[in-house]
Design goal:
Layout: H1 2-10, E1 21-25, E2 33-34, E3 40-41, H2 43-54, E4 59-63, H3 66-75, E5 80-83, H4 89-92, E6 93-94, E7 101-110, H5 116-120, H6 125-131, E8 135-138, H7 142-147, E9 155-158, H8 163-169, E10 175-178, H9 180-189, E11 196-213, H10 222-235, H11 237-245
Parallel strand pairs: 1-4, 8-9, 8-10
Antiparallel strand pairs: 2-3, 5-11, 6-11, 7-10, 7-11
């Protein structure tokens, strides 16, 4: 549909605006969310919106559960999503060369966990496997599928990202692996901050990309998106966006 509309637009009068890029996203602060007044905000929203605006591309942001976002982009009922590229996602969506953001992942566990000493000494995913720890995550977490589940590490999933912390607090698993800046607001929202501990263990950095359905005409503009992001980084614009959310 997106490709057809873009082809038609190329023969239409210049005054006729192209259809917006339909971006499917999960409500997940501070990456993307709507305020009580209905305005979009968030780190990923601001970075991607600015880059698309510089390219002359408008976007329509639509929120769904994360697994639904992926299904909609796969089917073509949405055009784009922002996520970690995996082999499966790259079958039906294209992306750009350089990540626009690297999300540092840390290990969380429960207060007073009987294996706290072993958990605090983890250096790699191999250690998680060796210790036989159970990981709590959310459905559709591609990083977890690629690096944790594929290793045979037992995983329990929640359909909603915010419920990961309730599951962990209730001892449905031993650890969760997440970005602290996004984790703590959800931990506090679930009122389990006294039952969750952020360890000093840092595992990996998850690269985030804009991914567009391969049949969508906007996919051909991904190299331009990549160059636009590079310019924004060189200008300090991305750093300025990040500074607005740090410490919140």
């Amino acid at each position: 549909m997106c490709l057809t509309l873009l082809l038609l637009a190329s023969f239409a009068p210049l005054s006729m605006a192209a259809e917006p890029l339909r971006v499917a996203y999960p409500d997940f602060w501070p990456f993307f969310t709507r305020t009580e007044e209905g305005y979009m905000t968030g780190i990923f929203y601001e970075i991607v919106s600015e880059a698309l605006s510089r390219m002359g591309v408008s976007a329509k942001w639509q929120t769904y559960p994360w697994s639904r976002c992926q299904a909609l982009v796969r089917s073509g009922d949405a055009d784009a999503m922002i996520t970690f590229p995996t082999a499966d996602r790259l079958v039906y969506s294209a992306t750009h060369d350089d990540p626009f953001y690297m999300k540092r992942l840390k290990i969380f566990t429960t207060t007073g966990h009987p294996r706290m000493k072993e958990i605090s000494e983890i250096h790699s995913i191999d250690d998680i496997h060796r210790l036989g720890l159970v990981v709590v995550t959310y459905h559709g977490n591609g990083w977890n599928d690629k690096y944790i589940r594929s290793r045979g590490i037992k995983t329990y999933e929640s359909p909603l990202i915010k419920n990961v912390w309730l599951m962990l607090a209730n001892h449905r698993g031993d650890i969760a692996i997440e970005w602290p800046m996004a984790a703590w607001p959800l931990i506090k929202e679930g009122r389990v901050e006294n039952r969750i501990v952020e360890t000093d263990v840092s595992l990996d950095a998850m690269p985030f990309h804009l991914m567009i359905n391969r049949d969508c005409g906007y996919a051909s503009q991904l190299p331009e998106f990549n160059e636009t992001i590079k310019r924004m980084r060189a200008e300090g614009h991305i750093k300025a966006i990040l500074s607005k959310y740090e410490g919140k």
